[in-house]
Amino acid sequence: MPINLFEYEELAKKHLSQMAFDYYSSGAWDELTLRDNRAAFERVKLKPRVLVDVSDNRNLSTSILGQSLQSPLLVAPMAFQCLAHEEGEIATARAANKAGVGMILSTMSTKSIEEVATQGNYSDINSSSNNSSSNNSNNTPRWFQLYIHKDRDLTSNLVKRAYAAGYNALCLTVDAPVLGQRERDRRNEFTLPAGLNLANLASISDLEIPTEHGESGLLLYFAQQLDPAITWEDLAWLRSLSPLPLIVKGILRGDDARRAVEYGAKAIVVSNHGGRQLDGAIASFDALPEIIAAIDSQVPVLVDGGIRRGVDILKALALGASGVLIGRPILWGLAVGGEAGVTHVLEILRNELSVAMALCGCSRIQDIDLSLVG
Question: Do residues 154 and 204 lie in contact, with contact meaning Cβ atoms separated by under 8 Å?
């Protein structure tokens, strides 16, 4: 049994095809940003408090947008999870619900909006109220990640389905007007195996991942279907489609963060897409302080990219993040053990965060502050 997330990654290699492992693990071009996402956490040192009573169980609970979490993390939106395990996003949703953490479902998932909504009694949450923030307290947050397609009716349909299925928020990815150049995918001529499809799009259209010799099918899909012309003004249109709060994911600059809030974003995710878009972009963790300063507590700020230890979560919270998104390690757990593997990955992070808090003199999430960072 793996005892940390790095061991899960090594074991996952034995459970995945080369094409699937490379798709999940690769970054853009020379993968500089991919590596720097991890190195950014390693560069930051902590100044722990001592002689603080941390004898009681640490309280890791928090809330984001009025939605309760048993620990300050959500599962990041990740496409094609059935490449890792036949239950894919359904297994991940069950594990997230069991752990009391949030999950963000990708537009490009291999299980549908409605299928995933049934895991944890999420269906009909919004049908009983016109206020999407009135969430069932027995459920943890379930958000829907959105790419805006050139077909605006298709995009509108996705939003309305997510709202009807009881999702709590929309998470718009804004750092992918075109797809980053992922050379491992190109070398493998990445496409979905027979039997897997774009589950959220199957009932709307015959869209599928195309194939072309010497090219990534996903890159071709983005070029054909996703809209590179969207601007800040399109956020008003998106917000008009449902009462769900809008989260903007993919912000790396303070001025963009302020603009997102001006255009109605209720939360920000500091992200460089796991190093999969612009190689050479700043590490998400390094970008966090500028964005925290720019937002000035107007909305919650989350961060993703390179988080592999509970102490990384503590560092992000110390710099002002309200929570973190966990990506690839979830896929490694899914590949190794399905729902049980994801559950174990989340348990490892929770236990590591609890120990790190105790060693830093923090008994509650609210005790973590900037004074802990050297």
Answer: yes
Q: Are 3 and 328 in contact (CB under 8 A)?
A: no
For residue 344, give the DSSP letter: H
Residue 210's pLDDT band, with cuts at 50, 70 and 90, is low
pLDDT in tens, 107-157: 999 999 999 999 865 444 444 444 443 333 447 899 999 999 998 999 999
Catalytic option among 85, 149, 273, 344:
273
β-pair partners for 302: 269, 323
> What is the separation of C-alpha 290 from the centre of its chain, rounded to a whole number of angstroms?
21
Q: For residue 206, what are the contacts with CB-CB under 8 A and spacing of at least 6?
A: none
Give the pLDDT score at 87.
98
β-strand partners of 226: 149
CB 237 within 8 A of CB 148: no
The DSSP bridge pattern shows strands 73-75 and 62-64 to be unpaired
Residue 242 contacts residue 133 (beta carbons within 8 Å): no
Rg for the chain, CA atoms, rounded = 19
Residue 5 backbone phi and psi in degrees, to 5: -70, -30
CB contact at 8 A, 172 and 198 = no
How many Å apart are CA 92 and CA 89, to the nearest integer? 5
The full length of the chain comes to 374
Active site residue 273: yes
Identify which of 190, 228, 226 has the alpha carbon closest to the alpha carbon of residue 210. Answer: 190
Give per-residue pLDDT as tens, 89-108. Answer: 999 999 999 999 999 999 99
Distance (Å, whole) CA 59 – CA 290? 28
Q: How far apart are the first and last CA of the chain?
A: 34
Give the fold, CATH level 3, of 5-372: TIM Barrel (3.20.20)
| pTM of the predicted protein model | 0.94
C-beta contacts of 24-27 below 8 A and 24+ residues apart:
24/78, 24/83, 24/84, 24/328, 24/331, 25/184, 25/328, 26/182, 26/183, 26/184, 26/185, 26/276, 27/180, 27/182, 27/274, 27/275, 27/276, 27/279
